[in-house]
Structure formats: C-alpha cells, structure tokens
Amino acid sequence: MKLIYLTFLLSLSIMASAQNNFKATQIKFERVEKAYNEKWGTLEKFVKAAGFGNDFSMLINAYKAEGKLEVWLKGNSDQQYKLFRTYDFCAHSGTLGPKVIEGDGQTPEGFYYINVFNPMSNFHLSLGVNYPNSVDLARTGKDRKPGNDIYIHGNCVTVGCIPLTDEKIKEVYVLAVEARDSGQEKIPVNIYPFKMTAGNMKMSALQFPNQASFWKTLQPGYLAFEKNKNLANIKEVKGKYVVK
After folding, report:
1. What's the pLDDT at 5?
2. Minimal CB count within 10 Å: which of 120, 161, 218, 234?
3. Is 153 among the catalytic positions?
4. Regions of the chain short of the pLDDT cut 50
5. Beta bridge partners of 124
6. Is the dihedral angle over the CA atoms 25, 28, 31, 37 positive or is it negative?
7. From CA 173, how far away is CA 181, in angstroms rounded?
8. Model's pTM, two decimal places?
C-alpha cells in the first residue's frame, strides 16, 4: 500500500513538473518573456478579481462576420466559463463559409483546439489550431490539399488566419500559456461564421445558400455553449459535427 501511495505521489510530482516546465520553457523565449513582463501583471489582477484563482481553463470563440475573438475563462472549481476579454480581428480573409482547399484564402469554420505555441512566429507570437480535422478533410475530398498552418497571431495581415496585432496576441498568448500550465491539454477554439442566432442563420443562408447545411451542423454547438456556458460534447462523425 505504501509503495502504491509513493508511486501516486511521484506521478503527481512528475505531472506538476511537466506543467511548470511548459511555462518555464516558453518564458525562455525573448518575445514570451517580454509579453509576460508587459501584460501578465495587469492580466493576473483581473483574472483574480474575476474569481478564477491561480489555475484556470480557457476557451476561445471567434466570429468571422463580427470580426470578434472572445476569450472565456473558467476556474478549476467553476462549472461554467465566463467571458474575460473580447478582441477585434485586425484584418479579414476570404468570405463566410469554411476553408475547403489550399490557397482559397478562407478562414476555417468549425470546432478546433490549440495545437501549437509558436514563440518565434513570423507574426510575433502565434497559436496554431488543429486545422484540418476529419470534417475538413471530408469536405476537401481525396487527392486535394486542404491547406494548413492556421493561426491566431500578431501583425495585421492574413491569408486565412486570425490576426489580432502584436499587442493583443501578447495577452491571448500569455493567457493560453497560463491555461496550459494549469493542466489544460487542449484549449478549444470554436470558429463560427457569425453569432448563430435564428435570425442570423436565416439572413446568411439567403446570401450563402450553399453553406446553409454545413452551418446547421455548427449551430447546435453554438447554442449549447450559449445556454450552458460550457463546451458541448462535439464529435466528428463521418465528415460532420455531431453534438452529443
């Protein structure tokens, strides 16, 4: 029994060390260190004032038509996410509708998560999303390239990504590092064509009728979050999003 208990304590220690090493490794990069020096002091005060504590999870909702990126946070003891910050896109690329193929200039639409922290980005700092997922690949089809390298980043240029300016990406990047360091393996990034109310769906479907059926698979995830302020159980099933 004592051996099992010691093994358990060791595993907790290793997990804590791995988390701490992530932040420590990130801060070794000059741009991340500077972002922490400039932004984290103020951000931390607002994080604690909002009641999120020292450890929190993070979720990003982005709306292409509105040009808004929302950062939602949830303390480890909280049941729901709360809106923490809203940032404006600095530039737009393509039109409403998902990304289909490499070079189409489209910003993806769908349910993703952060899979890359790039402290040496050509666009200051950047957070990569796991595009293409299986839904994207099914849409693109065989023997065609769906494209890749989709990021939330600094600067103010884009060909399918979401640029926020250098000053804003510093804040989002630092918050993402903190969430990852708190143990959140996957930070959700939900990219919607617009706020998917019934009225917006009807109006946008008239303008982009070819996208209506796809958007109907996104709307349940949007509505579930609006109702519960928590990420719905979203599965990728045979090239479609299904909310369980």
Report:
1. 41
2. 120
3. yes
4. 1-19
5. 121
6. positive
7. 12
8. 0.91
